[in-house]
Design goal:
458 residues; mainly alpha; disordered N terminus; 17 helices
Length: 458
C-alpha cells in the first residue's frame, strides 16, 4: 500500500509524515524531552525537600519505596498505554478515525480499572511497608504509600491522557500538563515541609495529599483536551468499549505492562537481596543508596522514555501509512537520539553526583559514600540503557511487545539479580557486588536490543 492510499486525517500526523523519520522523531520527541526535565526536576527537588524533614532520611527512604510501589501502577498504565499508542497511531496513519476513537475509549476504560487496583494497594499499605521498608522508614513511608495509592486515579490517567495525545502526534499539550502539575506540586510541598505561609512543618503526609489532588485535577483537564480533538462519546449504535479493540489492546498492553513493571521489580529485587545477603544493619546504607539512586536515575530514565515516546507513534504512523522502511529508520533515529541525550546525564552525574547526594543526605555520611560509589558505577552506561529503552518503545510502536518483555526479564530480573546474589555476599564483593550487577545489566540493556533491532524487518 502507498502512503497516498492512507493519508492521515489528523493534522499533527499529516505534518509529521511529511518529514523525514529523524526529523519527525525530533519534532514529536523534543517537547516530551522538555516535559521529562520538569518531571526529573520535580523528582530531584522532592528528594531534596524530603531530605530536609529532619528524621535522618527516614521520610526520604520511605517515600522512595512508596514511589516504587505506586509507580508499578503508573508503569502498568504506561505499558497498557503503549498498546493504545500503537492502535491509535497506526489508525491515524491509515486515516481510520473511528478505530482511533475506539482505541482511546478502551484506554480510558483500562485506566479506570488500574485506578481501582491502585486503591487496593492503598488498603494494603501496612503489610507492604513491613515487607519492603526498613524499620526506620516504615511509619512515614506507610502513611505516604496509603494516600498515594488510594489517590492513584490522577497518576494513572495522566499517563493515559499523555499517551493518547502523543499517539495523535501532539506532544505540546503533554508538556503543558506536566509543567503545570510539577511546578504547582513542588511549591505546595515546600510550603508544608518548610512551614511557609504560616503552615506548621508537618512532614511528608500533607505532600501526598497535595500530589494526589493536583494530579487528579490535571488528569481531568487532560481528558477534556483529548475529548476536544478525539471525541470519546460513542456515536449512534456504538458501544463505549469496542470489545475487539479492547481485547487487542489488552493482549498487547499486558505484555508491554509487564515489560514496564519489570524495571520496578528488578529494583525491588535488589532491595530484598541486599537484606538477605548483607543483613539488616549492613544493608541500611545500601538501602538508602539504592533509593537515592532511584531518584537521581530518574532524569535519564524519563529522558529515554520521552525519546522512546516520540519514536513509537512515528513507527506506528509509518506502518499504518504502509511505509515499513521509514518506520525502521524512525526506530534507529529515536535510539541514537536517546543515547546521545543520555551522555548529558552521564556527565552531570559524574561531575555533580556527590554534591547532589550530599545535599539530599547532609547528616548521613555512610549513605552518601555508598550512593556516590553506586552512581560512579552506573552513570557511564546510561547511553546504553537509554538506547535500549528507545528501541523497546519502537518495537511497541510496531505492535511487538513480546521481545522487549523477554529481554527485560532476562536482563533486569535474571542477569542483574543473579550477579547481585553471587557477588553481593559478604564473602565476595559485598556492597560492591550490587554495583557491579547494575553496571553489567546496564551494558547488556543497550547491546541486546540494538542487535535485535538490526535483525528486525517490519
Amino acid at each position: 500500500m502507498t502512503a497516498e492510499a492512507h493519508e492521515p486525517v489528523e493534522p499533527h500526523a499529516r505534518a509529521l509524515l511529511s518529514l523525514s523519520p529523524a526529523r519527525a522523531v525530533v519534532r514529536l520527541g523534543l517537547p516530551l524531552a522538555l516535559a521529562s526535565f520538569f518531571q526529573a526536576g520535580f523528582n530531584l527537588t522532592e528528594v531534596w525537600v524530603f531530605g530536609r524533614v529532619g528524621d535522618g532520611g527516614a521520610s526520604l527512604a520511605g517515600a522512595a519505596v512508596s514511589d516504587m510501589l505506586t509507580a508499578l501502577f503508573a508503569l502498568l498504565a504506561s505499558g497498557l498505554g503503549n498498546a493504545a499508542v500503537t492502535q491509535i497511531s497506526q489508525a491515524t496513519g491509515a486515516g481510520d478515525e473511528d478505530r482511533a476513537r475506539a482505541a482511546a475509549r478502551a484506554a480510558a476504560w483500562v485506566g479506570l480499572l488500574l485506578s481501582l487496583g491502585s486503591a487496593v494497594v492503598g488498603l494494603l499499605a501496612g503489610p507492604l511497608g513491613e515487607a519492603f521498608m526498613h524499620p526506620s522508614a516504615r511509619e512515614p513511608g506507610t502513611a505516604f504509600l496509603r494516600i498515594m495509592a488510594l489517590g492513584g486515579f490522577g497518576t494513572v490517567f495522566m499517563v493515559v491522557v499523555i499517551g493518547i495525545l502523543r499517539a495523535r502526534g501532539d506532544s505540546v499539550r503533554p508538556l503543558v500538563l506536566v509543567a503545570c502539575v510539577s511546578v504547582a506540586t513542588l511549591v505546595l510541598e515546600m510550603a508544608f515541609i518548610f512551614g511557609w505561609a504560616g503552615l506548621d512543618p508537618s512532614g511528608i503526609v500533607p505532600c501526598a495529599w497535595v500530589t494526589v489532588i493536583l494530579r487528579g485535577l490535571t488528569s481531568a483537564w487532560g481528558l477534556w483536551m483529548v475529548n476536544r480533538t478525539l471525541p470519546l462519546r460513542p456515536g449512534a449504535g456504538e458501544r463505549f468499549v469496542d470489545r475487539v479493540v479492547l481485547r487487542e489492546q489488552l493482549r498487547m498492553g499486558l505484555l508491554s505492562a509487564l515489560q514496564q513493571a519489570v524495571r520496578v521489580l528488578g529494583m525491588l529485587a535488589l532491595v530484598a537481596l541486599s537484606f538477605a545477603r548483607l543483613g539488616e544493619d549492613e544493608a541500611k546504607d545500601l538501602f538508602t543508596a539504592l533509593t537515592v539512586w532511584s531518584k537521581i536515575d530518574i532524569p535519564m530514565i524519563m529522558l529515554a522514555f520521552a525519546w522512546g515516546g516520540g519514536t513509537a507513534p512515528i513507527v506506528g504512523m509509518e506502518l499504518g501509512a504502509g511505509r515499513p522502511e521509514m518506520a525502521r529508520r524512525a526506530a534507529w533515529a529515536g535510539a541514537k537520539v536517546a543515547a546521545l541525550a543520555a551522555l548529558v546525564n552521564t556527565a552531570l552525574v559524574l561531575l555533580f553526583g556527590e554534591a547532589l547526594v550530599t545535599a539530599f543526605l547532609p547528616t548521613e555520611p555512610g549513605a552518601v559514600a555508598e550512593s556516590v560509589a553506586l552512581l560512579h558505577h552506573v552513570a557511564p552506561v546510561y547511553p546504553l540503557m537509554a538506547l535500549g529503552i528507545a528501541v523497546a518503545y519502537a518495537f511497541n510502536g510496531a505492535g511487538d511487545m513480546t521481545r522487549p518483555l523477554i529481554w527485560d526479564l532476562a536482563l533486569l530480573i535474571g542477569v542483574q539479580s543473579l550477579v547481585a546474589f553471587v557477588l553481593g555476599g559478604p564473602e565476595m564483593l559485598g556492597v560492591d557486588g550490587f554495583f557491579v550487577a547494575l553496571t553489567v545489566s546496564g551494558v547488556l540493556q543497550g547491546i541486546v536490543p540494538a542487535w535485535l533491532l538490526s535483525r528486525r524487518r517490519w
